[in-house]
Design a protein that fits this description.
about 200 residues, alpha/beta
Length: about 200
Amino acid sequence: MKTDEKSVSIPVKEFSLQGEHNYMNALGAGTACLLAGVNEVQLKAGLSSFKNASHRMELIRVIDGVSFINDSKGTNVEATAYALDAFKNPLIWIAGGVDKGNDYRTVQGMVKGKVKTLICLGKDNEKLKDAFQNSIEDIRETQSMKEAVSWGKMLAKAGDVVLLSPACASFDLFKNYEDRGEQFRTAVNELKPETIA
């Protein structure tokens, strides 16, 4: 981040949020903070502790080295593309719901070799399954958030991410995206770790 008078360099690993889109947002916000007189120590503290709004790339919990991320607000393919791109780790991806004319080709390259399992959470999963049948080896279906989260824990290894980023509207199984995200949070918080930290 740089202004005419100040320059601050902060490694992205110190940011609380992941993903190129969040780094760009942090760059803009950080530059504005510098212009407003915030010092480097304050800026680093803010960027490392910032909490995103609920249901937007929200870390719910880390269990046995597996991160559970709530991106229920990802109700279209473009939003989900940012979420998928944010992680280098292997993913268990929970997606599905009411398809809004989605074109999944935009994320084909992001899932191949990165998404270990796609858990389709919806009443009609055919389009989602068809779109990824050649790029994701393990595709499962459920209409239960609890089952989807349980499968995520069972299939993930330490270092993996279980990502709820549906790319679809929520109205087939949930009241809205907040309800879907809250049910994800509840199911994750009910999980028991295998190892005691």
